[in-house]
TrEMBL record:
PROSITE patterns: FERM_3 (PS50057). It comes from the Eukaryota. It comes from Setophaga kirtlandii (Kirtland's warbler). Residues 227-271 are annotated as: Disordered. Residues 1-233 form the FERM domain. This is MYO10 protein. Pfam families: FERM_M (PF00373), IRS (PF02174).
């Protein structure tokens, strides 16, 4: 989950986590130790974020302009553009290699400082750093917020469901935009197969997600385990929706699988 960017923290801490992972895997630094690839130690998206954005190409304003663009693209101009793109991609790849080499060097220097640390100690230090994020232990879902009490904020959010509250995070930000304890939740459920509704006192939050049933099941489980005196009333799902029976409570930071990204089950990896 650290490698997939679901633990928002500084680059310095991410490098320390990578060094602790190396110490856990290989013990003390050695030039002869098997060395994982950088993407197995450090979040790749952090390196990509350092690269300059791709230039924006404004759309053609009229049919004639589109026709001329099409004709040019099929001739020498198109070949020149293809050459420019290839050169740009090559420069970006070179820049990415440089950033990767610099990051790996910093990780190795931190690894050398861990000499003498045993594997259990390295693992404990790793988990202790991850636990510094206040959202640790929540289950995270990638959602699109359709109705929001937090104003004109970002639409793509993390919906974090924890033992004590439901929180909304801007992806990559350590502090939640908003948080609701379970006593404030009046009802929840599926509006349709891809929309989850969460009613908090006099407000309705609508989330577009492919994980409607998983969110509802997890909410029911946490509410039952919390032993609240008055459980919120689940809204009736569509008749075609599966039964919302409680599931086993996940442990630790475990983002729910999204449609665009496979994520391992709980306990498959500590990184």
């Amino acid at each position: 989950m650290v490698l997939r960017g679901y633990v928002p923290t500084s680059e310095e801490t991410l490098q320390t986590l990578a060094a602790l992972r190396l110490q856990s895997l290989n013990s003390d630094f050695s030039t002869h130790a098997p060395f994982p690839r950088l993407e197995e130690l450090f979040p790749p998206h952090v390196l990509h974020a350092r690269l300059p954005p791709l230039p924006h190409r404004p759309p053609a304003k009229c049919r004639g302009a589109r026709l001329r663009a099409g004709l040019l693209a099929g001739g020498l101009w198109g070949q020149a553009l293809a050459k420019q793109r290839a050169e740009r991609d090559q420069r970006l790849r070179g820049r990415l290699r440089e950033e990767g080499a610099s990051t790996m060097a910093a990780i190795v220097e931190k690894w050398k400082l861990l000499q003498g640390m045993g594997r259990p100690e390295a693992m404990a230090a790793y988990v202790a750093l991850v636990r510094e994020w206040p959202g640790f232990g929540s289950t995270l879902f990638d959602v699109d917020l359709q109705a929001s009490p937090v104003g004109a904020g970002p639409q793509r959010l993390w919906l974090g469901i924890g033992a004590k509250a439901v929180s909304l995070y801007k992806p990559g930000e350590p502090e939640p935009l908003d948080s609701f304890c379970y006593g404030r939740i009046s009802s929840f459920g599926a509006s349709d197969s891809s929309t989850f509704r969460l009613s908090v006192e006099d407000r309705d939050l609508l989330f577009e997600t492919s994980q409607v049933d998983e969110i509802a099941q997890l909410l029911k489980t946490y509410l039952a385990s919390a032993g609240t005196q008055r459980l919120p009333r689940p809204q009736e799902p569509p008749t075609s929706a599966p039964s919302l029976e409680p599931t086993v409570l996940p442990q630790g930071l475990c983002p729910a699988p999204g449609p665009w990204q496979h994520r391992p089950p709980v306990g498959s990896s500590h990184s």
